[in-house]
Write a structure and sequence with these properties.
Length: 276
């Protein structure tokens, strides 16, 4: 695999790098490091013609480059191929541009999530990446060791989700998985097929994962996001996988996005599998 890790030197991004290194060690992956000088204060400084401000920018850029080179060297010491990518400008636009040029299999991001008014206006960077990029995104939030022993794939069980599920199984094939849960959530506010139809669909998905120890669930809750949170807690799940059918912004405003909501509120890593 080819992995991209956005780095802003926060504890969250450095933890994401540890997770990417863990994945690379078990899957012979490369890990590229990406840093974006955001618009704002840096851009204001760049517009200032004074030699003092230009010197300040040069010092800042050099410090960032040195730190990234040290992280790259740390990857090499772990026998992980690595490169450094630095861009100026908007973070999301930069990462979209990079992924169009490079064939990445996975983006690994750290996140603290977002809630309330901020969630529906600005959102977290991880949420924006999940919404905008075309590649799979793994969002991690804590500093615990990355663990895929007990995993959950949540799905509407439509045929359109089958490619994403196969993609998820391919990712899991690099690890030792003790239990794979396949779940659909039955909510009062979202139309689902009758239980016997959903049970048959669960059997079909289970048949695709015959290399794994699988349990299937048709789980009732008041929302998909709540169902995932509650199930993760009840079953001590360590990783959630979900297909991300990208939607237009208008529909997002009225219905929200289950994927983005799960990414924001899940306490365990979430692998968003993008389907264009």
């Amino acid at each position: 695999m080819k992995i991209l890790v956005p780095i802003d030197f926060s504890s969250m991004s450095l933890n994401a790098l540890k997770v990417a290194q863990n994945i690379a060690n078990t899957s012979s992956s490369s890990v590229d490091l990406f840093h974006s000088f955001e618009n704002g204060e840096l851009e204001k400084v760049l517009k200032n013609n004074s030699e003092l401000m230009k010197g300040y920018v040069n010092i800042l850029v050099n410090e960032i480059e040195d730190k990234l080179e040290k992280l790259k060297q740390a990857n090499h010491e772990l026998e992980i191929e690595s490169d450094v990518i630095i861009r100026r400008g908007n973070f999301i636009e930069n990462i979209k541009s990079i992924e169009r040029l490079e064939d990445y299999d996975l983006i690994v991001m750290g996140s603290h999530g977002a809630s309330g008014f901020r969630e529906w206006t600005m959102g977290s960077n991880a949420q924006k990446v999940v919404r905008n990029v075309e590649h799979n995104v793994l969002v991690v939030k804590n500093e615990n060791e990355f663990n895929v022993s007990n995993v959950l794939y949540v799905s509407s069980l439509n045929k359109s989700d089958v490619p994403a599920f196969k993609n998820f199984l391919e990712f899991l094939s690099h690890f030792k998985v003790n239990m794979l849960h396949i779940m659909a959530v039955d909510t009062a506010f979202y139309f689902t097929q009758p239980r016997f139809i959903m049970q048959e669909a669960l059997k079909d998905f289970k048949a695709l994962a015959d290399d794994f120890n699988v349990q299937t669930h048709f789980y009732a809750d008041y929302s998909v996001e709540a169902g995932v949170r509650h199930f993760v807690h009840e079953k001590n799940v360590s990783l959630v996988g979900i297909a991300n059918h990208q939607k237009g912004n208008i529909r997002r405003i009225f219905t929200g996005s289950n994927v983005e909501s799960i990414v924001n509120h899940s306490e365990v890593p979430v692998l968003s599998i993008n389907l264009k």
